[in-house]
């Protein structure tokens, strides 16, 4: 954000004018009628060549934890040898092997193919899993509740 060099107000549209031989960036009001050498509209989005990072987006799908194991299980459930699966989805056997042993993170395209071919879910929304299974922490009913239930059953 630029400030007007005359009145000091922040300006969205910078008028570059020549005042007493000096170039100044001022607001529209201060430019008032003077011949602007250049008008720079700062509200217009600048063109950024930089693309957003693929792995950092909040809306991106993320590979689930233990994807290699899941993948292997799904494949074995279907009785598919690695080689056959690789041929089916036109990938290298070695690539799939590296993915299964979690030595390599599969690309998005590969993930989609694997998910489709094995009908297994290997991704989750980047926002984090809302339901995490907590083993050994299931208390179905408290004593108080049990008593109330008994009483009301009468
Ligand atoms: Zn001004």
What does this structure look like?
The structure is a single chain. By secondary structure, the chain is an alpha+beta fold. Among the domains are: 2-41, no CATH class; 61-125, lambda repressor-like DNA-binding domains (434 Repressor (Amino-terminal Domain), Orthogonal Bundle). The protein has six helices and seven strands. The protein has helices at residues 28-31, 67-77, 82-88, 93-100, 108-118, 143-153, and strands at 2-3, 10-11, 13-19, 22-26, 36-41, 61-63, 123-125. The strands form three sheets. Strands 4-3-5 form a three-stranded antiparallel β-sheet. A two-stranded antiparallel sheet has the order 1-2. Strands 6-7 form a two-stranded antiparallel sheet. A hairpin with a 2-residue loop joins β3 and β4 (22-26). The longest helix is centred in the middle third of the chain and has 11 residues, at 67-77. The N and C termini lie far apart (73 Å). Bound molecules: zinc ion. Residues 4, 6-7, 9, 26-27, 29-30 line the site of zinc ion (ZN).
């Amino acid at each position: 954000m630029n400030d007007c060099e005359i009145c000091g107000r922040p300006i969205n549209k910078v008028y570059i004018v020549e005042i007493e031989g000096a170039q100044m960036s001022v607001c529209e009001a201060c430019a008032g009628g003077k011949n602007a050498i250049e008008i720079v509209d700062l509200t217009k989005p600048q063109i950024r060549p930089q693309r957003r990072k693929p792995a950092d987006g909040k809306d991106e799908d993320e590979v689930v934890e233990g994807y290699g194991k899941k993948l292997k299980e799904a494949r074995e459930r279907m009785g598919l040898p690695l080689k056959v699966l690789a041929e089916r989805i036109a990938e290298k056997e070695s690539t799939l092997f590296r993915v299964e042993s979690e030595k390599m993170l599969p690309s998005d395209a590969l993930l989609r193919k694997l998910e489709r071919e094995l009908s297994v879910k290997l991704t989750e929304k980047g926002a984090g899993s809302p339901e995490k299974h907590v083993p050994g922490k299931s208390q179905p009913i408290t004593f108080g509740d049990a008593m109330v239930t008994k009483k009301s059953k009468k």
